[in-house]
Amino acid sequence: xxxFDRFHYALASLRDSRLRGVLMLLAMxxxxxxxxxxTGLGEGARxxxxxxxxxxxxxxxxxxxxxxxxTGGVPFSLVGETTRDLTLDDARAIGxxxxxxxxxxxxxxxxxxAWRERERDVPVMGSTPEMLAIRHWxxxxxxxxxxxxxxxxxxxxxxxxxxxxxxxxxxxPLGEWxxxxxxxxxxxxxxxxxxxxxxxxxxxVAIIPVSAAAQLFNTASLFRVLVEAADKDAIPRxxxxxxxxxxxxxxxxxxxxxxxxxxxxxxxxxxxRALTFAVGGIAAISLGVAGxxxxxxxxxxxxxxxxxxxxxxxxxxxxSLIQNLFLLEAGMLSLLGACCGVIVGYLGNGVLRxxxxxxPVAAPWWxxxxxxxxxxxxxxxxxxxxxxxxxxxxxxIALSRR
Amino acid sequence: xxxxxxxxxxxxxGEQWVQALNDVSLHIGAGEYVSIMGPSGxxxxxxxxxxGLLDRPDAGVYKFSERDVTALNDTQQAALRSQKIGFxxxxxxxxxRLTAGENVELPLMLAGVPPRERxxxxxxVMNAVGLTDRAHHRPDQLSGGQRxxxxxxxxxxxxxxxxxxxxxxxxxxxxxxxxxxxxLENLNAKGITLLIVTHDGELGARARRQIRMMDGRIDSDxxxxx
Lengths: 402, 226
What we know:
The complex is a heterodimer of chains A (402) and B (226).
Chain A: H1 3-16, H2 18-54, E1 60-65, H3 76-80, H4 88-95, E2 100-115, E3 118-127, H5 130-134, E4 139-142, E5 156-159, H6 161-168, E6 177-180, E7 183-191, E8 196-197, E9 200-201, E10 206-209, H7 210-217, E11 224-229, H8 235-249, E12 256-260, H9 261-304, H10 306-314, H11 319-355, H12 365-392, H13 395-400
Parallel strand pairs in A: 3-10, 5-7
Antiparallel strand pairs in A: 1-11, 1-12, 2-3, 2-6, 2-11, 4-7, 5-10, 6-7, 8-9
Helix pairs in contact in A: 1-11, 2-9, 2-11, 2-12, 9-12, 11-12
Chain B: E1 2-13, E2 16-28, E3 33-37, H1 44-51, E4 59-64, E5 67-68, H2 74-84, E6 85-88, H3 100-111, H4 115-128, H5 144-156, E7 162-166, H6 174-189, E8 193-197, H7 201-204, E9 209-214, E10 217-221
Parallel strand pairs in B: 3-8, 3-9, 6-7, 7-8
Antiparallel strand pairs in B: 1-2, 1-4, 4-5, 9-10
């Protein structure tokens, strides 16, 4: 029997039993669709988080005061641990390295911001002009913090878009004097709204020179120092440089924690990818269930078509040909079901994207390929038993009934 | 053409063994017209199944055209059925979803005959059984006699050496039955070896050689007249 005839014959017998076909299509379709949608969600979560981290800046090394370390065995060290402050001088020293492109010390706090009779609490960030470039922020109006000596507490402030709207409405804020805590600052710029970046809502901050913030909050200690390395390869050198510099300056104590953005990103990437795999795997169980359903339906088909199988044998079909025909049927159903499933999955992802536009739901190509091949393989695998049974049917018994 | 020697076939029915064929030896020459008669349970259908390679004997040797076919595996037997043996059944066994023409085409398709040649041979054989105008009808649109003629066309289309018919008129009225018998006898006249199993004595008497079976044995045989 030529392959064309085999396909034709299997297709014809599928058309003959619509309910059976629809049932199997449904099972496979749901299974594959579930895999596509769930891995799409997982992949969406991964992209969302990595995008957020990437928006923090590129080739970033973040220095935190204090050493977080699991120190076992010496209980009193927990109590007796002292942390030396991370200071502006430390930040300056960190900047003295050929691989360091920019350094931005960061101070944070919260203060009441007032203009005329309007007042609200805002998070305040104290930093330097470098911050703008490191974090890839953009200005909507005016200028960012002026360049100059780090110690110079120029009384100027850059506002987030939301803060500006609430305080000034449609008025032009540039050049206006606002009160921040117990000091007066002149508004010199407004940040463009660019949504959230992890932890801080850029639309809701007030940014002032780092020394001004130190005075405002009455502390010389920095919250973070953000360091931008020249390129990806320079990151380990920069980390090394930061640690030795701090050790030198802090009397031999390596009392800072250095986090590279790459490491954080890679960790999140790994975790979320594993999550996607796991979710996809769980969904793939439904493919196994679909396979079992296919087996059942095919077994029933073998019983129903006993006479036909007997006839084919009497007409000269070999057992392997019979097996082949049934497998072909199961395979075609699975493939068709898988295709339906992919379509359903993509539609589902499309609906999710419409409902949550900020969440980049998209099934990764490997999950679509895997779901389809798993569907076909299970379909055929679970088709083997019924096909075998058909092939081994005794023609005399099959034909003896009407 | 056919040489059976000491064929045994037993079935397990419930807790009892039924001896369907008991030491049957038989020679049938090419081109013979043989009827096998006997009461139900006498083993005539089992004999037909063994002859058609649908059933394997438990003991004995079956030689088809000088070739020991009991030793062949399923695939080889299938190939032999495809080329040399045609079947006609009491209940027609047409595939309901296929048209009459497609049913006739089926054995050629299974044998891997190219479509162009299939069409020519199907047209010829449909013409021979007088159903050219019914080729595109489905079995449920045909009368019983027409269905059996389609089945005969299907059996004849591969031009087999041996045609086995199991109660071919058992489900037909008298007139249709006679038509079917004439068709089968025409095929025999063209050289095909024809074996008909029936319990109808009148039909059986039309055959040149008549074999009567009883309890799995050959009770009487009018013998080969060729």
